[in-house]
Amino acid sequence: MSLKEKFDSLHTKYYQNSVVLQRFVKVFSLDVLVRASNFLLLPVYLKLMSKEEFGLFTYLYLLIQIFSLILNFGLYLSQTKLYHDYNVEERKSLLFTINVLLISGLTLILVPTYFLKLDVTIIHLLITNPINYESYRLPLFLALIVSVYSMMLYTYFITSENVKRYQLYNLVKLVIVNGAVIYLLVTSDIDSVMIRIAYGYLFELAILIIFSFVYFKNMKPVFNKAMAMKAIKIGAPAMITSLVGLIYNFSDKFILEKFGTFSDLAVYNLGFTIAGIILVIFTSFQTVYLPIFFKEKDLIKNFYKTREIGFKMSAIFIGLAIGIFLVVKSLFEINIIDIKYGSVLLILPIMLASQIFQANIQLFSNFITYFEVVYVGTLIVFVFSGVNILFNLYLIPKYGITGAAFSVMLVSLLTFLTYYVYAKYKSKTEAIKIETNK
């Protein structure tokens, strides 16, 4: 069979005895329950917070997530990619080396930022509507650090195939963090945004420290320069991509905040959170799929496995999106969600479609790391960040949250098509090179 015939036929031979599916089922049941709690608890938080407070919190929370991804320096990817390249003893040095790099990078950036108050300038640039930033400043730094290390711990548990500990970590966070925050919201007169950021992340920090013992226990205090260079080679381009992705993923909220209010952001981010259920489910799958994806050395087989997964996943998500919309609509009808957020129903279908495209983007962007051409991902994100800004500047002033949602959907579709075409092209050309060199 020729290479072309092999490439064209393997799409019918995909995971008949799926290891991915088996691992996904193990993680999915609890992981999605934990992640979906953000949706299940939404009516509670919407009742306990004003519309403006909810809008401000979701805006700050998004900033925490975006900057924590940047300040991870792409090392969570280095950890996932390199872990299986070494034996048991070497992995201990790898984990230590990566964490030394991470601590050094965080110290070099966060310490001068805090004492020189560079963050104040950044916040004034990102937020037009008045807020008392000084009161949130220290909790936001705490939240950033906790988010960075949570990401490292998550990827370690999954990469080392310690699914049970991963599930337990999620379950404990779900019960303790949300329980404590809701209790304080009900009984305390403290600013609700402060409660969710400061106290929420304090409880998460305590849980993180407890569960990190097993992580640090599997480190050997030997810094390996060769491993460090490999980690930087993978992580640095990923960090740059995340930095560019700040514009790609944030420009809609940024421009909406400039032309609107925190109430507009509350409705828009409510839709974003609800539609995010789709990405939550995909993230659970991606978590267990990545180690297996990187282990697969047959380039053609890997592409067709991924394409098959993408087709089936999209079909399932379309059905799920319809179900989500109907459930949310019924929640308004029985007054579980306050009618003041009713305009979210106008943008929810658009946002659900965007999330399906986003899931496919993440699925096919795995090839960028697989082929160690992260700069390609950076270039794609850079180009479409510009497109996204243009769409947002045109649509948001005219159509508000609807314009923002439509802009995101268009850019997500175009980005997905670009990643798909590149993944197919790169898989085929690299496979031909390997075959030629035999």
Give the helix tally: 15
Arithmetic mean of pLDDT:
83
Number of strands: 0
Helical amount: over 70%
CA distance, first residue to last residue? 15 Å
What report would you give on this structure?
The protein is mainly alpha-helical. Helix content is 86%, strand content 0%. Helix 4 packs across helix 8 (133-159). The longest helix has 64 residues, at 374-437. It is globular. The protein starts with a helix and ends with a helix.
What does this entry show, briefly?
The chain has 438 residues and is mainly α. 86% of the residues lie in helices and 0% in strands.
Give descriptors for this structure.
globular, 15 helices, 86% helix, mainly alpha, 438 residues
Task: List the topology elements.
Blueprint: H1 3-9, H2 19-40, H3 42-48, H4 51-71, H5 75-83, H6 88-115, H7 118-126, H8 133-159, H9 163-187, H10 192-217, H11 225-259, H12 262-295, H13 299-333, H14 344-370, H15 374-437
Helix pairs in contact: 2-9, 2-12, 4-8, 4-10, 4-11, 4-12, 5-6, 5-8, 5-11, 6-11, 8-10, 9-10, 11-15, 12-13, 12-14, 13-14, 13-15, 14-15
